[in-house]
Here is the input.
Amino acid sequence: MRLSRGGVEYRDVGDTPVYTLVVEQRPSSGSKLGRAAYAAAGQDAARREIPSPLRGDDLEVELLYVSRTGINIDLDNIIRPTLNALTGIAYEDDRQVRSLRAARFDTKKPMRLRGSVRVGDTLFKEGAEHRVIVLIYSELERRFGQAKPASPAAPPEGSSSRFIVE
Here is the structure.
């Protein structure tokens, strides 16, 4: 559902992503080895969920990152490696992404979140020291594309999937 304000359309907070990817690797824009390891993990996650690159030019991406190690990574060092890793697998070119939202969560600080319980449970579950959840939205893919049913990490249809930190 779209909301129109001032001539600009916004995605409704209750929309469900077309694809939900879970990457359990530290995002890296530094060392060549770190970049390669993160790219491989992101590409593997995308290949498991997306049969072929999305072609729509209406892609909206949401990135959620949590680290249990206390490492405080700049958001731009999460965004760029993630978009680059998904190019050619999740979408043909990252220029197709028209909207991007990113959030970094610190498990040691109190926070209030609104959003899907499933996505929150996946983000904060024990295990990996670093976890990135990539939510990809596309009305064109939902209506006419190749999108397969949402993965278990995805919220059920009609539930809120967008995270809002308060």
